[in-house]
UniProtKB/TrEMBL annotation:
Similarity remark: Belongs to the Gfa family.
InterPro entries recorded: CENP-V/GFA (IPR006913), Mss4-like_sf (IPR011057)
Domain CENP-V/GFA intervals: 3-139
Protein name: GFA family protein
PANTHER family, per the entry: DUF636 DOMAIN PROTEIN (AFU_ORTHOLOGUE AFUA_1G09754), GFA DOMAIN-CONTAINING PROTEIN
Top-level taxon of origin: Bacteria
Keywords, in A-Z order: Lyase, Metal-binding, Zinc
Organism: Zeimonas arvi
Length: 156
């Protein structure tokens, strides 16, 4: 599925092809919720980095998070330097992938049949996850990938 996305002010626009377009995984880690979360979580999609096309690159900035052990993350969180909108995460550890934030996507996304809530041990105290029947919850990382979730549901 070809996804079109943009920041709030329109200075940065992008397109990317995503074989995994369902916004099913909510991440409550402190990095995601503080840099991109609106409901106390962020939703990242899986896409093909080689298909990423960007206009307005002059307005992109990158944040590399400080980890609990004091080291710096290899993940590059791309955002608009004008309005601060979180756009996508790229990590050179997985060079073929890019993870656009669902909140930056302008293309209508399909509604997932169930959701996965991850990093619940890191959620803010005021956040009450909206867990529905069929949802799965993890204190840390989940036991299946974005691609595997889509395959299991017949979406791949």
């Amino acid at each position: 599925m070809k996804l079109e996305g943009s920041c709030h002010c329109g200075a940065v626009r992008f397109t990317v092809n995503a074989p995994s377009p369902y916004p099913f995984m909510r991440c409550y880690c402190s990095i995601c919720r503080k840099t991109a979360g609106g409901g106390g979580y962020a939703i990242n999609l899986g896409a093909d980095r080689h298909s990423l096309r960007v206009s307005g690159e002059a307005h992109l900035s990158v944040y590399r998070a400080r980890l609990a052990d004091g080291s710096t993350s290899t993940g590059e969180r791309n955002f608009c330097s004008r309005c601060g909108s979180a756009l996508w995460l790229y990590d050179p550890t997985w060079p073929d992938l890019v993870h656009p934030h669902a909140s930056a996507i302008d293309t209508p996304l399909p509604v997932p049949p169930d959701r996965v809530h991850i990093m619940l041990d890191s959620k803010a105290g005021w956040v009450e996850p909206e867990v529905r029947d069929g949802d799965r919850c993890f204190d840390d990382y989940p036991d299946e990938s974005l691609a595997r979730w889509h395959e299991r549901h017949g979406f791949a």
